Amino acid sequence: MTASTYTSVHLAKRPKDVIIPDETFTLKTNDIPKAADLKDGEVLFQSLYLSLDPAMRGWMNDTRSYVPPVQINETMRGACIGIIKASKSPSFPTGSYAMGTVGWTEYAIIHSEALQAINIPANGKLTDALGVLGMTGLTAYFGILSVGQVKAGDFVVVSGAAGATGSVVGQIAKLKGARVLGIAGSEEKVRWLKEGLGFDDALNYKDAEFAGKFKEATKDYIDIFFDNVGGEILDLALARAKPHARFVICGAISQYNSSNPQGPKNYLNIISQRIRMEGFIVFDYASQYPQARAELAQWLSEGKIQRKETIVQGGLAKAGEALVSLYKGSNTGKLLVEIVPHEQTGKANLWGWRQPIKTKSLILNAETTLFVKAQGHIYKRTVSLINMSSIYIVVSRPPYTFAVRMVVISHAVILALHAYSTAPLTPEMERTVQHSFYNGTYARYGDPQVTITIHNRPEFHHRSQYNIRILLDRERIEDAVVVIDERTPELDAV
Fold first, then answer.
1. How many CA atoms lie within 13 A of 279 on its CB side?
2. pLDDT tens-digit readout, 411-464
3. Do residues 490 and 380 make contact, with C-beta atoms less than 8 angstroms apart?
4. pTM for the structure as a whole
5. Within a 10 A sphere around the Cβ of 286, how many other Cβ atoms?
6. Closest Cα to residue 102, out of 81, 87, 86?
7. Which of 276, 290, 20, 292 is nearest to 140 (CA)?
8. Can you say whether residue 280 is alpha, beta or left, with left for phi > 0 and alpha for psi between -120 and 50 degrees?
9. 375 backbone φψ class: left, alpha, beta (φ>0; ψ -120 to 50)
10. What are the residues whose beta carbons fall under 8 Å from the beta carbon of 66, sequence distance 6 or more?
11. Packing angle between helix 289-301 and helix 135-142, nearest 10 degrees?
């Protein structure tokens, strides 16, 4: 049964020190808006993932800052990835994906100008729009390049290095030829920084001998200190700065939950070593976002940047607790809340044909429902037989809609047989299979921008399952499994 209400999270009380979720936030139940409620240019946005960021703690304080504070009883501020459920905007048709600061809410009516389309590069995934390609990635980019002005040969130290921003900072510095030392809060994170991301060295600040190890690791002194933490680590770095060092002050997560935040004790070193210490806000670089995202996307697609995510399940009811855990360092990489379980948005564990499948011949009724799994995300689409001569299989891969068209139904059967035999597609088949992007342009199957490879997987023979890999306009959809089995369970529609 379709739900008629949704949940939103509101600021109930300004925290003085640490956030106490049940006191700081309150959950409200609201009626889901209808398509008829939309005005021109508006969309009905259903949130799928919520970004949790250290800056949220500051947004709750009633003080002057770079954005107004969240007001009492106001929906808590936050960026989300979501799907458009209804639209009166040509920019975001129903079923498309978008990102915006819609807040801690399951649904919202929002003007399309406040949203951003999601473009996923090769090796990318939907949630990258809130991480390496989102504000955290952009913060790293402008912080280390524009503020820090990193160059080859620099010695760069990054605090909070295993977080969403710090992990990207260190990798960009390495790409620019710098030597990088990362500081993190566990041995596991230290290993990831060195072995997974290629940092030259990393230290665990919880180690009892950290101060001594930090002094030894910085014996040549620091050119750039990228600070996400503040507190004692900032003081240690000030004592190890080279003359004319650049200190990039991005955050001070160690002080955010204190009613009496402590500044640096070694601030006199700023004078003696002529240190340039500069704070910055990523919004200052908004006009440069497109080119920054393009370069980050290229590095991601080429495998030059890696990332991790910590995704908290359980919906918005868990968001407050998850935010508290952020300040305790529980996450590695980007911290997200999954707002809607996959099965509630047409996502499931496998592909499924609702109609019976007859041996090795693909027999379809006039309209058959197909569920597509791609990189952990499931999309429901239909397969239609048109005049018994054409078949369309439509796969959604934001921001595109991809359609494979097999003109003659016998070729569809050939395709099914090839899936079983793993023989290559015939030239005739290659000529008849086409693909369609969302904007309606076409290219022949076999063109460089699209390939379809079908792999026989012996371990699935008992259920006639086959792995399919699709490369669509340099955007990879992999680990998809087609299930040809009339026992496939019924799955809820989107």
1. 7
2. 222 222 222 222 333 444 333 332 222 222 222 222 222 233 333 333 322 322
3. no
4. 0.71
5. 9
6. 81
7. 292
8. beta
9. left
10. 281, 283
11. 100
